[in-house]
Amino acid sequence: MRAAQHKNPLVKKLFEIAESKKSNVIISADLTSTKQLLELADRLGPYIALLKTHIDIVSDFSNETVQGLKDLSRKHNFMIFEDRKFVDIGNTVQMQYHGGALRISEWADVVNASVLAGDGIVKALANTGTSDDFEFKGARGLLLLAEMTTDGSLATGTYTCSCIESARKHKDFVVGFVATRSLTTVETSSQASDDEDFVVFTTGVNRATKDDSLGQQYQTPEAAIAKGADFIISGRGIYAADDPVEMVKLYQNEGWEAYLRRVGDGVSKV
């Protein structure tokens, strides 16, 4: 499968994790204390491929938070995705990513960014992540926020095309997209290379609810994967359940079975 064929070392490792655990689930751990965050990661870690954080909502963020996340990712064999959505000028974003109070590059395997500020933001992050002086070279990657699942999202059309173009320019560091579907049919000015294989992460996955009061639009694991998702992101649908462990197992089974049905014995392209 894709773990054996992908050229990017981070993506190769990600698919190795997914295949070994038979899971393409990402838990969106939108929790506000270190204790809550680490307890959830420990309970659900055996069943997920990645843990997604919003680290700036953790009110008591400290070295304990960072070390705890790193320890649990090793214990349960999952990656960490910091949903930072970088969007600023390149110089600022470099400092936000590699340094600063949150020290994101030290513990987050994957981060994401919007191209609203132009290709410079992607270039800045890619320059940092692929530098020979970067301690984590080859072990970090970037997703571009190509689409969103909120009602009225402006991440469409030309914006989405710009994400694809930028990803192709910086494919040594850009590993894929946050998107609602496969992007292979989107018309762009550049041509995909023969070995292009960007990963698709889809948010807003919920087995029981179609929307919330703040505009979030949901879809089931099977529906998301049928549209092209490789990894499915769910938050409250799992951790707010009466039994989060049993719920994450349901997402794990449904998500992985749907993925295998879609890709068969071949390699799926985004």
Description:
The chain is an alpha/beta fold. The protein has 11 helices and 8 strands. The longest helix is centred in the C-terminal third of the chain and has 20 residues. It starts with a helix and ends in a 7-residue tail after the last helix. The C terminus is likely disordered.
Topology (elements, then pairings):
Layout: H1 2-5, H2 9-21, E1 25-29, H3 34-44, E2 50-53, H4 63-76, E3 79-86, H5 90-97, H6 104-107, E4 110-113, H7 119-129, E5 141-145, H8 157-169, E6 174-178, E7 199-202, H9 221-226, E8 231-234, H10 236-239, H11 244-263
Parallel strand pairs: 1-2, 1-8, 2-3, 3-4, 4-5, 5-6, 6-7, 7-8
Helix pairs in contact: 3-4, 5-7
Which structural category do the helix and sheet elements fall into? alpha/beta
**Biggest sheet character:** 8 strands, parallel, barrel
Helix content: 40-55%
- Strand numbers in spatial order across the main sheet: 1-2-3-4-5-6-7-8
**Number of helical segments?**
11
Beta-strand residue fraction: 5-15%
Q: What do the pLDDT scores average to?
A: 93
**Coarse shape:** globular
Q: State the distance separating the first and last CA atoms.
A: 14 Å
Q: How many beta strands in the DSSP annotation?
A: 8
Order of helices and strands: HHEHEHEHHEHEHEEHEHH
Radius of gyration: 17 Å
Uncertain stretches of 5 or more adjacent residues: 265-270
Oligomer: single chain
TL;DR?
Helix content is 40%, strand content 14%.
Descriptors:
alpha/beta, 11 helices, disordered C terminus, 270 residues, 40% helix, 8 strands, eight-stranded parallel β-barrel, globular
